[in-house]
Write a structure and sequence with these properties.
Blueprint (H helix, E strand, L loop, with lengths): L2 E6 L7 H14 L4 E5 L7 H4 L10 H5 L5 H4 L1 E2 L6 E4 L12 H11 L5 E5 L6 H7 L4 E6 L3 H16 L5 E8 L1 H5 L6 H7 L3 E7 L2 H9 L10 H15 L1
Parallel strand pairs: 1-5, 1-6, 2-4, 2-5, 6-7, 7-8
Antiparallel strand pairs: 3-4
Helix pairs in contact: 5-6
């Protein structure tokens, strides 16, 4: 049966969709059949980050509301044998979707996929509760910035209160020069804020921004320090 991983953040703009896409790409490249679910209704970006914006016809809300079958909304990502995704609705949707709908969907997807990666909306809201229902493991993507860290801390506490204790922290957009001079919180300070394990840091790098704009996961560029770093982070989250 497949495993469900939720990728979240306390606030928007931390890079959770970028991380979700690259985690899915790494898993697929290792031979694991993987599907990415975009739950960021009205603010979807996953299709852009995968370079698949012109392939979306049906979305995840269409599936959960019964408008179409699961396979109609599953899109195979170009260049990958084992990577699929479901897009979020392009606008806020007033269809009544409950956590049970998400559990049923993921239970069906587990028959076909080794990993289900849910890119959930930032913050804590009704859609977050829906995305949370089938989750077995959670990754919080944050930045070394106090507002982002505080919101991630609140989100981790919420996850714990709802029975999800297998959590990992990824610190994105790290500027080593600012961290060395004490202008932003150090890794030790950040680690002490969370109960979950620090899975790794991702340096602020223009190549990551370029890859998301081009719709190509950065981990597809082999032999770079970024790809190797993502490999290490994914290993800590999935296999340690």
């Amino acid at each position: 049966m497949g495993k469900v991983i939720l990728v979240s953040s306390g606030k928007g703009g931390t890079g959770k969709t970028m991380f979700s896409v690259n985690l899915g790409a790494l898993l697929a490249e290792k031979g694991y059949k993987t599907i990415l679910l975009d739950m960021d209704m009205g603010l979807r970006n996953m299709d852009l980050y995968l370079g698949m914006e012109n392939k979306v016809v049906y979305n995840i809300m269409d599936v959960m509301s019964g408008i179409c079958r699961i396979k109609k909304a599953m899109i195979q990502v170009n260049g990958f044998t084992n990577l699929y995704f479901m897009a979020a609705s392009p606008r806020r949707d007033d269809r009544d979707i409950t956590p049970l709908h998400m559990e049923i969907l993921c239970n069906k997807l587990k028959r076909y996929f080794d990993y289900i990666v849910i890119d959930c909306p930032a913050g804590i809201n009704d859609l977050f509760d829906v995305a949370l229902a089938p989750t077995q493991k959670a990754v919080l993507v944050t930045e070394p910035e106090m507002a982002s860290l505080r919101d991630a801390d609140v989100t981790e506490r919420y996850l714990t209160d709802h029975g999800i204790t297998d959590t990992y922290i990824v610190i994105n957009k790290v500027r080593a020069d600012l961290m060395r001079t004490g202008m932003i919180p150090s890794l030790s300070v950040i680690a002490n804020m969370f109960k979950g394990q620090i899975a790794g840091i991702i340096q602020d790098d223009d190549n990551i921004h370029i890859s998301t704009n081009k719709g190509i996961p950065i981990v597809c560029k082999k032999g770079t320090y970024i790809e190797e770093n993502f490999q290490d982070i994914a290993y800590r989250i999935l296999f340690q």
